């Protein structure tokens, strides 16, 4: 819906759905048909516009999206791990990092593997803060972190994450995130550069040039296997 915000700006001038339909009614329509209700019916059926006509529900949704883009309502951050009862070591590590990431004190990249029912494996690097933020905004295809911490859903990498590997299909994807640019270095391999302080997180943390930019820790659980956390302390501008 975000791609249509500019196109939908005129909806702010439409107090109600009938006013929206009236924007497609011409003087000629009124002159020859002489019935406003019938004119609106023709518009609603798509006879007066080359573009799709919104239903009453779609009209309200798109108008609300325009209003939110201009006058966003500040919502309190949801911490999905609050009240977590799981004793899974990997989930406990994620829960410990949720608040510092949401408050942008640290920026965590999670490397995780997932075995499919076919027996083949996928893996990827996840921008943890971005994933939490998307869940707070309830964006389309976001990770349901409440279900993850409640153990109703198992976290798995997605093609839209920082990187995604499906070795069986020969699929390797890299994506820029809200916090990181993806770089490839001939000598150091895969690198993620933080957009805020421009510090580089090298997957091979043993490289001395980048060893001070983050800490790497590996944790194991029966549910997730070995999961690697790259924790970067964000340098604040003075």
From TrEMBL:
Stored InterPro entries: DUF4464
Top-rank taxon: Eukaryota
Annotated compartments: Cytoplasm; Nucleus
UniProt KW keywords: Cytoplasm, Nucleus
Keyword Ribosomal protein carried by entry: no
Function recorded in the entry: May be involved in spermatogenesis.
Protein name: Cilia- and flagella-associated protein 299
Gene that encodes the chain: LOC131800684
